[in-house]
Every structure is written in structure tokens, then in C-alpha cells.
Design goal:
363 residues; alpha+beta; Transferase(Phosphotransferase), domain 1; 13 helices; Phosphorylase Kinase, domain 1; 2 domains
């Protein structure tokens, strides 16, 4: 069977551009490579999943949000070129084509040096500060949405997929929405970086502190190679974010200096008032905690002695039940049950690899 028959969108035209290759799929949609029919210029097109537009309200509202992101005009934001509708009815985003890789792929190779972490945090915090000053919250910050781009001899961290995630909870009408057990596995990679207020469905409380929490999860993962939450389904992970304190970072990697661990754990506080007040406050505290440490120091999540445990086989922490998620209904006998648990780390890694394959599109 030809690629064209497998995917009817292949070879479809968007203005002067033609979709030439399917690059991957994620929780937000399907990504394609496109080329200009005159000149051969490349760009990336993401055909949005139906729930993304519905969660925003209307296509017009999503367009308004997209334009606000376009107006950020920050060197560390992936440039959005257009938002429109295909003849087939699907909505799409087109964006600049970049050489490089998603940061999630860089994390898989581990051995991230302190200097690299500092550069990442500085650039991401600068972008978030610009967005927050304009009341733009990312809401979906995770490694696969941070692109490590190579531009000439320079490497830049560029953020993508701004503001397209809403609270991952089952819809009241029982239909599949982010957070339901029927959602595709790639959404698991979003859930592990979710802020408590999003997990609880508290939309009015979502703000700059929500992005700081997600950034804290990224730092935690870099330093320990583990996640601060447990769960084998999206709902379990969301429930953990909503009601449980994060696992102490040094329980997983005692080699992390206490001052640095405290910075990360402050990002993960359930009380939004106890987190850092701004991304730049986080960055400056991070710098202070790293003072005196060699810049080539790297953390790979190495476990020491009795700490050599994994999320998938830990028995001391009870599973989070769907009932623990505020507003969720108890699981009944007739509902779908999950298979054997594979663990937060494994499922999130699978989801990240799937999403990273799509976002490698920029390479």
C-alpha cells in the first residue's frame, strides 16, 4: 500500500506548499514535512487533533491565541508562520523548519553537563518571562516541546506548542478527552509534566507558576533520570500531581547537592505561593545553588546503594486510583481495565520517543 493510500493528506497542497512526508503523530496532532513547489523551501505542518480546537472553544479563539504567540517574536520560540484550515476540514499550524533535535532526544543520551543545564534554563526562563509579561502561559512545557536547534554555528533552545493543553480530565459526557483512558499513549508524555492546578481542572488558577512547576519536573528528570510522580495511566499520574507531594529528589540521587535539590523541589510545591514567583527568580536561585560547582559536572541519575529502585517495582508507594482525581467518577465493573503496569518512567519514555520522532521533523 502506498503512503498516499495510507494517509490521504500526503501530497495535499497548502498554498504554495505540498505535504511530502509524514514525520510522526502525538497527542496534539500529526506532523508533516512540506516543501514549496517553487524554490523548494521547507517548513513543518502540524495538522491539529480535533480535541485541541474543541478545548480552546472555537477556531477563531485558537487563531487569536496563535497570533498572540506569533507576536512574541523571541529568538527562542519556534516561529509560527500560519494557521488555517485544509480543504479536508482539519486545522493546521505551519512553522519554521529547523535543523537539530528535540531536547527529549538529548535527554535520552544523559550525561547532561551543568553548563548545558544552565544554558537551557536561562533561555527557557527568558522565553517564559516574555510570555508571562503578555499573559501567555505555555501550559505544556516538556522536553519534546523544547527544540535544540542548530543555526549556523550557534545552538539555541526553542520552545514550541504554546498554550494548547487544557486540564486532562474525562469529559462530563463520557467522551474521550485528554486524561481519559481512551486517549492515545503520547498524552502520557504530557501528563508527567503537568502542573497540579491543571491536573485538578482549576483553569482560573493556571498561571506562570504552572510553567515553573513543569520546568521543575524537567530539572528533576535530568538530575535523577526519574519522575517525581507515580502512575501507570494518565489519570493516575494526573491524580498524583493533584494531591500528592513529589518524591524528594535526593531519595533518588543523593549525589545532587542539597542546595540544588531544594531549588528543584521548590518548583514542585503543591502550593503555588510557595513556588518561585517568576522564571528568572528560579534561574537566579539555580545559579546560586550551582556556585562553586564545576561547569563540566554532569548528573545521569545514578543511584547509590539502597536508592537503586525504580518506579515500576516500588511497593512502598500505593497506586493512585482514578477516584483520587478530583471530579472523576469511580471506576465501575463495566469500564475498561488496564493491563499490567509498566511504570511511569517506562510509559513516559515511550511517549516521549513517539513525540520526539514527530518533532525531529525540524531536522
Amino acid at each position: 500500500m502506498s503512503d498516499r493510500k495510507k494517509d490521504p493528506l500526503l501530497e495535499a497542497c497548502i498554498g504554495d506548499y505540498q505535504l511530502t512526508q509524514k514525520l510522526g503523530s502525538g497527542s496534539l496532532g500529526t506532523t508533516y514535512l512540506a516543501r514549496s513547489r517553487e524554490g523548494g523551501r521547507r517548513m513543518v505542518v502540524k495538522v491539529m487533533a480535533e480535541h485541541v480546537i474543541k478545548d480552546t472553544g472555537t477556531p477563531e479563539r485558537y487563531l487569536q491565541r496563535t497570533r498572540s504567540i506569533q507576536h512574541l517574536k523571541h529568538p527562542n520560540v519556534v516561529e509560527l508562520l500560519d494557521f488555517d484550515q485544509l480543504e479536508s476540514g482539519e486545522f493546521y499550524l505551519s512553522m519554521e523548519h529547523l535543523e537539530g533535535e528535540p531536547f527529549s532526544m538529548r535527554m535520552q543520551r544523559k550525561k547532561i553537563r551543568l553548563a548545558e543545564m544552565t544554558t537551557l534554563l536561562e533561555q527557557v526562563c527568558d522565553v517564559l518571562t516574555r510570555g508571562h509579561s503578555r499573559k501567555i502561559i505555555h501550559r505544556n512545557l516538556k522536553p519534546s516541546n523544547i527544540y535544540l536547534a542548530t543555526i549556523g554555528k550557534e545552538k539555541l533552545y526553542k520552545i514550541m506548542d504554546y498554550g494548547v493543553i487544557k486540564a486532562p480530565r474525562p469529559g462530563k459526557d463520557g467522551t474521550s478527552r485528554p486524561g481519559s483512558s481512551d486517549m492515545p499513549d503520547p498524552f502520557f508524555g504530557t501528563a508527567v509534566y503537568l502542573s497540579p492546578e491543571l491536573a485538578r481542572g482549576e483553569e482560573p488558577r493556571v498561571g506562570p507558576h504552572s510553567d515553573i512547576y513543569s520546568l521543575g519536573v524537567i530539572l528533576y528528570k535530568i538530575l535523577t533520570d526519574q519522575f517525581p510522580v507515580y502512575g501507570t495511566t494518565v489519570e493516575e499520574v494526573a491524580a498524583y500531581h493533584a494531591v500528592r507531594e513529589a518524591m524528594p529528589l535526593r531519595d533518588y540521587n543523593p549525589g545532587v547537592p542539597e542546595s540544588l535539590a531544594e531549588v528543584v523541589m521548590k518548583c514542585l510545591d503543591k502550593d503555588i505561593e510557595e513556588r518561585f514567583s517568576s522564571p528568572m527568580e528560579l534561574f537566579f536561585e539555580f545559579q546560586g545553588a550551582c556556585a562553586g560547582l564545576p561547569s563540566d559536572l554532569s548528573f545521569d541519575g545514578t543511584f547509590v546503594g539502597s536508592q537503586a529502585i525504580s518506579i515500576s517495582n516500588t511497593r512502598s508507594n500505593p497506586r493512585i486510583r482514578r477516584e483520587d482525581l478530583p471530579g472523576a467518577t469511580p471506576v465501575t465493573e463495566g469500564q475498561k481495565t488496564m493491563g499490567p503496569p509498566t511504570g511511569t518512567a517506562h510509559k513516559a519514555a515511550v511517549a516521549e520517543k513517539s513525540h520526539a520522532a514527530a518533532e525531529k521533523s525540524h531536522a
